[in-house]
Write a structure and sequence with these properties.
Elements lengths: L6 E5 L4 E6 L10 H15 L6 E6 L10 H8 L3 H20 L4 E5 L2 E3 L1 H8 L2 E5 L3 E3 L13 H8 L1 H10 L3 E2 H7 L4 E3 L4 H13 L3 H14 L6 H15 L2 H11 L12
Parallel strand pairs: 2-3, 3-4, 4-6, 5-7, 6-9
Antiparallel strand pairs: 1-2, 7-8
Helix pairs in contact: 1-3, 2-11, 3-4, 3-10, 4-5, 5-6
């Protein structure tokens, strides 16, 4: 396995791979480097015959706060075409995670905001601690959760996705379990024990059967979003990032003020 700077990969003797988001000082916010490293790590994991399944985790207090502010600010200065290319890298990561030929389990503590909700939604299963918080916050910045939207809709349903996309309301672990985003919720101090229990349970199942079930369910469930839908989501976020509203929303957020659009300060 390659050396990484923003993520970490651990292997157990039983074939369990743990993929850690490893920027705890930035609340595991992802940037271009992390997206690239996650894609390379997933490619490596898929090619390792001994890997049984993958745990996706975040070091530190939070699973992930979403996109890194500096990376978002840099993206907002790019041209429309460059933003399409940038969004394409994130879209490819989401598809690669969802289509990984290995079962995946996300373990969520603290924040899982914006794009991080996409990572959780792309995993086959997810569990969380009772302090987990979720939010599709993009509209507060004049943006949209465009690239992750197909996966979030599959995970929690169109009605709930509509509500949380349009309101940017936060919701807690209990609500995430009601929506099906989390399979189970545990007290924070019991989360590690829960991870061990889930791991032991999955290890009891046939390795090839697990992979075959994953492939079967992807086929039955419709698989990855169609290419034209992916292109539409990339174009949407590129258009919003380069729009006057998106530029104002980003600047307002970075400057810790209300954006200058009607009603924003009420």
């Amino acid at each position: 396995m390659q050396a990484f700077s923003t993520i970490e990969v651990e292997f157990s003797d039983q074939g369990v791979a743990t993929l850690w988001l490893n920027r705890p000082d930035k609340n595991n916010a992802f940037n271009g480097a992390m997206i690239d490293e996650l894609r390379r790590a997933l490619t490596d994991l898929a090619a390792r015959p001994a890997t049984r399944f993958v745990l996706l985790r975040g070091r530190g207090k939070h699973f992930s706060a979403g996109a890194d502010l500096a990376w978002m600010h840099a993206s907002a200065t790019l041209s429309y075409d460059d933003n399409v290319l940038e969004a394409g890298k994130l879209a490819q990561l989401m598809e690669q995670l969802q289509q990984l030929p290995l079962p995946t389990l996300a373990i969520v503590q603290g924040a899982a905001f914006a794009g991080a909700m996409g990572l959780v939604s792309c995993c086959d299963m997810a569990i969380g601690s009772d302090d987990a918080q979720f939010c599709l916050s993009e509209v507060r910045l004049g943006m949209a959760p465009a690239v992750i939207s197909p996966y979030v809709v599959k995970a929690i349903g169109l009605r709930a996705a509509t509500r949380y996309t349009l309101t940017a309301d936060r919701f807690d672990a209990a609500r995430a379990r009601e929506l099906g985003l989390l399979a189970e919720v545990y007290p924070r101090e019991e989360l590690e024990l829960a991870v061990r229990t889930w791991t032991r349970n999955l290890l009891q199942n046939g390795p090839e059967a697990l992979k075959a079930c994953k492939a079967l369910l992807l086929e039955v469930g419709g698989g990855a979003p169609a290419a034209d839908l992916q292109a539409h989501t990339q174009a949407t976020i590129a258009r919003l990032r380069t729009s006057a509203e998106g530029q104002e929303g980003m600047q307002a957020f970075l400057q810790k003020r209300s954006p200058a659009w009607p009603g924003a300060s009420t």
